[in-house]
Amino acid sequence: MEGLETATLIGVALFVGGGIAWRTRLPAPLVLLALGVVLGYVPVLGRVVLPPDLVLFLFLPALLYWESINTSVRELRRNLRVVLMSAIPLVIVTAAAVAGVGSLAALSWPVAIALGAIVAPTDATAVGPVTSRLPRRFRTTLRAESLINDGTALTIYAIAVSAITDHRDVDLGVGSLLFLGAYLGGIVVGFVTSLLARGARRLVRGQALLENTVSVLTPLVAYLLAEQVHGSGVVAVVTCGLILTHYSPRTISARTRAQARGFWQLASGLLNGALFLLVGLQAHRILDRLGGDPWPVLGLGLLVSLVVIVVRLAWVNTTPYLIRALDRRPIQRTLRVPARQRLVSGWAGFRGAVSLAAALALPPVPGYPRDELIAITLVVIVVTLVVQGLTLPAVVRFARMPADPTELEEERLAEQAMSDAGAGRLDAVAERLGTPADIVDRVRRQYEEMHAPRPDGSPRPPWGDGSEGELRRALIAKKREAVIRLRDEGRIDDTILRRMQDRLDIEELRLSPIAADD
Length: 518
What we know:
By secondary structure, the protein is an all-alpha fold. Helices cover 79% and strands 0% of the residues. The relative contact order is 0.12.
């Protein structure tokens, strides 16, 4: 019964915290974290423990998969160098800087490297809610970085933990080989899992429940398979998600896609909120373990927080000039970002539940300060969320982020392509279906009036029945082909494609016989 009470209280807390964030316009992760700290003193909730395996093997794959299937592959390719430099070298440099501070604080090198790996990556669950306020390029780079850098950090973490448990120093040569193997293994497993997922969907095509069962299992299978072959589960999930986001528009039905999108939006929102609430619930338990004088550990946590913030700011304000010096191609000039706008990327370096889960997963090996490392990690999470989370809106205003005119142009291009595809194939499709002439004429007139508003300003209803419904459903397929073709040609990105697909899916579902019967 206590488990049910705890789950209910956490659900109520998520609702209350989300409502407070909505009303106050404060970052939801920050509100839920603070609420968790307060609720940690409630007797029932004070005993709740955040199992690291739950985060690393359930929450993390699901959240990474949702973020990856909503990432623009085209924009990722365009900004791949920036993404990879932030997701790999920056994580390594941050981990090294934190390890240096840890060694000065009398931590052994394996323990110091483990601490650096724990706090080095930004968290996709924390960065995700912020990216909606930013232009498309910044959304893509921040989201993609936070997807990949977990793989870099957790690989370094595994190497350091192995050295700790074996009571030996970290071998940089062996560690480098393991690092490369983990990345390559993750990519291979992600590719193989995407093939398995596509094959399974083809076997059950038309059965929305079974297709979406495949969708739920896909990130879990990718993560577990990668871990079994000592690859990066994070890289496997992200690779699989990016591949599927390219092919799924052609292979998933409207009903399946609508059902899946609703499920993943709800699930990711609940998981995301629960993570930060659970992180807050751990605060007083962790501090109690430090004994009577927690201030030296808290002071080291503040110092590490300063290090991760400064290293990131230094990175985003130095590496662009190095790139400019080495790459003088004309196209490179079009990708340059002013220093004022780079500040946004540098300031969006939140740490989150993945860091705490990694800290909690440290093995109970005698002779090293496990509780202190967990406390330091919690301090870094709180500081980055509070300091950077509360001030980021002001930083965005200071940066004067430019609007992305191409996004609106691409949306208009996609709308025009869908309209042209519907009108242009009308006669051929009507002849194939044997649609009566009066219905064809009515549908043609509606296509001609599509861009003209009605006198009362209301939208024209898209549904029909009988022959008209059949004709409209057939034309939706032509519209979908047209907008997918634009994506494949690089004229629109995946974000615009998903936006157009949502509209077509709604229209198709309203025209479907099941919807008509309802």
